[in-house]
Amino acid sequence: xxxxxxxxxxxxxxxxxxxxxxxxxxxxxxxxxxxxxxxxxxxxxxxxxxxxxxxxxxxxxxxxxxxxxxxxxxxxxxxxxxxxxxxxxxxxxxxxxxxxxxxxxxxxxxxxxxxxxxxxxxxxxxxxxxxxxxxxxxxxxxxxxxxxxxxxxxxxxxxxxxxxxxxxxxxxxxxxxxxxxxxxxxxxxxxxxxxxxxxxxxxxxxxxxxxxxxxxxxxxxxxxxxxxxxxxxxxxxxxxxxxxxxxxxxxxxxxxxxxxxxxxxxxxxxxxxxxxxxxxxxxxxxxxxxxxxxxxxxxxxxxxxxxxxxxxxxxxxxx
Length: 319
Known about the structure:
Keywords: Membrane, Transmembrane, Transmembrane helix. With 319 residues, the chain is α+β, with helices and mostly antiparallel strands.
């Protein structure tokens, strides 16, 4: 269970970001020599290493808190702007906590007393703490720039992997459909035709009715109070506008495994989907017989993938 949790993208990212922060702080301290570190000779490497370890540990704690307690993870499944926002919140929480930890360590390292930096002339003060706030904040600006770039690359890489996976499933599905069609053509002369289930779509105005097999529906697009139903009839692509909701259409279609609502305004037949593409950080489906791209909302991408996996497994069992 622990290994499985560590392999989750969110937790892997937490580890990566924390290690990056620790390495960056080590290099920054070595180059800039703040806090009169140049006066230290024997303990300088130890001081740098300790600051780096503290930065890594605090960054990991704040990342875990932000991701799992505040539910603001850096997750590639989320919109990119949301991931950037979550990163900013993480840094805002990290700055005072890291400054506090470094102030305590500085007192222990330089004065052998972690409370020493908080007292001056017999009075409690925050001078050293504010100094660390300044240095940590300046460091976090550079760290956030790197995180911003990594977030974009990570997000794009995840989208490409998602598109490749779904396209592989679509290709496998199209092959299975083609093989099934060939088998049906070979046995059609010797076996009686099975009755094809029909779905009845009834509009709210006039005598608007459409009766057809669910498998003939290519896609349905919601347009305000109407729905544009694209379907196959006599090997031709046809359209029909009806005053009906997507919910009513899904209820009429029933639990057909190839029909899926991929967007709040679209229902699509997976049997007609040729491929998926990623344009301007948005998923789109290319449909056989039409040039219209069908959008896939981020929340419904996993639903499309699960439907394809389920249909593929079902087809394998039949074979």
